[in-house]
Amino acid sequence: MSRPERDIVEVLETLDIAGWGGPVHTNMESSAIEALEDGRVIHFPRLAFALSTDEGRFLVPAAADAGAKNVSFDAQAGALKHAAGSAQDLAAMTAMMQRYSEHAVALVRMLLPRYADALEIGRTSFRPAEIAGRALSARKDDTRLHIDAFPSTPTGGKRILRVFTNVNPRGEGRHWRLGAPFEEVACAFVGKIPRQVPGSARVLNLLGATKASRTPYDHMMLNIHDGMKLDDAYQRDAAQNEFSFPPGSTWIAYTDKVSHAATSGQHLFEQTFYLPVRAMADPSKSPLRILERLAGRALA
Ligand code: SIN
Ligand code: FE
Q1: Of the residues 70, 123, 142, which should be mutated to test ligand 1's pocket, given the most ligand atoms within 8 Å of the CB?
Q2: Tens of pLDDT, residues 127-173
């Protein structure tokens, strides 16, 4: 590969935790927080999510609605969405997703206790479809490098922290590309962002197109996300490392800061968390503060 790569230790950190409830070593929290806030992925090579023999039958694309591809679970409400099957299947899938969510919550509480009080629990997802070769518009195509920002869910600056676990039963890794540091990405794309149309955030919110009003921060993040995905030359030439997360392993990252692309793999669990910037050990490392420094004004 001719495009530049970074030293893998700048991109990925490995932590040897074997159980969702620990134990962790005393210095693990500060090094984990530093790695995450700097924009590195933390990989736990031995942290697996065990499925029961019965649950193994859900490892087929047909477990999710054909249109949705992913099963989604709201742990607060106990609500399962986009799952396909009998009432009994849905109950079993709910229990499986609930258990993954509880494990992910236990992991972040144990590893990152300083975040515990401020952390908001978002959606849990189960992704039983192969991601390579899917036909999607460039904007929706997560096989292209991007930072996470979603049209319907503005965060207003809150961090997006995600836990991922590969449960592939055939030994297949989840193949990711990891791109340049956020500051570099931001510098490459902020100059091309169109002005947010005055009043548009309010209209989108009134129409129910967004779950909260889109702040100038959300506008910039969405445009960086789209700018990256739509730029073929950037996808081809940007600095990037490839890494395959083996089945039976877990990883965690601030996906609003880490540029990432998932190029192949099947059968993944994921839990999303949101964290207010003020709860970070170093808020100046947040995308919000970085973009505010570049823009020279408050963005949220
Ligand atoms: C993404 O967050 O872009 C996709 C991650 C994955 O499904 O592996
Ligand atoms: Fe993503």
Answers
A1: 142
A2: 999 999 988 899 999 999 999 999 999 999 999 999 999 999 999 99
Ligand 1 in reach of 70 Cβ (< 6 A): no
Residue 1: both structure tokens together: 């590969």
Q: How far is CA 250 from CA 53, 154, 259, in A?
A: 20, 26, 18
| 3 state SS of 285 | helix
Tokens 């997006």 locate to 160
Tell me the pTM. Answer: 0.97
- Tokens standing for 138? 């460039």
Nearest CA to ligand 1 atom 1: 142
Task: Give 11-17+30-48+62-295's CATH code, choosing from 3.40.50, 3.40.1130, 2.60.40, 2.60.120.
Answer: 2.60.120
Helix pair angle (287-295, 216-230), 10° resolution: 90
